[in-house]
Amino acid sequence: MSNPLYAIAQQLEQAIRTSDDFQQLKQAYEAVRRDETAYRVFTHFRDLQMRLHEKQLTGAAILPEEVEQAQKAMALAQQNEKLSALMMLEQRMSMVIADINQIAMKPLEELYRSFTE
């Protein structure tokens, strides 16, 4: 017996993959990958983000110099046209996913709200 929610989720996955937003994001990643300088800045920035995120998750202190290093890496990334476009497209795709998540969670939120009223 199959669950229709999983079938719909798979349809949503395909819709995301074929969406203009995702295709533009994919092209932006490919453009960064082909540009040696942009790719080097991107990987450095991503590695910094990952280390800081890991520290956050484990409750480890993030040092002021680490914050400053991340801010400098972000500024450098934003100065690169390809990376700037990539970050804008990532943000747009992230907003789409957040909107989809909000829609999907609406029945549960309504249920919880009705339970506490």
TrEMBL record:
SUPFAM superfamilies: YheA/YmcA-like. Pfam families: Com_YlbF (PF06133). Belongs to the UPF0342 family. This is UPF0342 protein HNQ34_002453. It comes from Anoxybacteroides tepidamans. The lineage of its organism: Bacteria, Bacillati, Bacillota, Bacilli, Bacillales.
